[in-house]
Amino acid sequence: QVQLVESGGGMVQAGASLRLSCAASGRTEIRYAWAWFRQAPEKEREAVAAFAWNATSTYYLDSVKDRFTISRDNAMNTLYLQMSALEPEDTAVYYCAAVAVSHRNSNTVYTKDYNYLFWGQGTQVTVSS
């Protein structure tokens, strides 16, 4: 299994940028699909960005397209979420998630939280107007 630890959250003003990081440890040699989710108070958790193991297929929530970018550094075993032009509506706890996939599913992007087995503890992002 893999352990995930997020960092990089904080309190910023609208229009600012943040980069979230998710450090993975453990069985990082296994093929995983990755995602960033967020959960705002009294709202359901939603996928913000996700990509398949081979990173050729990517998903973004409509409201963050052209503002957020998901990426990973395989050498550092780290997943990133670059967020720009932040809006108060982006305020939430952000989680990274991973699920081991087979070779057959290397191109599959998973966007539901029940697809993912491994989760970080979350990092708070607060955007003030």
Backbone CA Rg: 14 Å
How much of the residues is beta strand, in percent? over 45%
Mean of the pLDDT scores?
94
Low-confidence stretches: none
The computed structural class is: mainly beta
What sort of overall outline do the alpha carbons produce when their principal axes are compared?
globular
Largest sheet: 7 strands, mixed
**Fraction in helix:** under 10%
Q: What string gives the helices and strands in order? A: EEEEEEEEEEE
- Separation, N- and C-terminal Cα atoms: 40 Å
Total number of beta strands: 11
Number of helices: 0
Could you write a compact summary of the structure shown?
It is built from no helices and eleven strands. The chain has strands at 2-7, 10-13, 18-26, 32-39, 46-51, 58-60, 68-73, 78-83, 92-100, 118-119, 123-128. The mean pLDDT is 94.
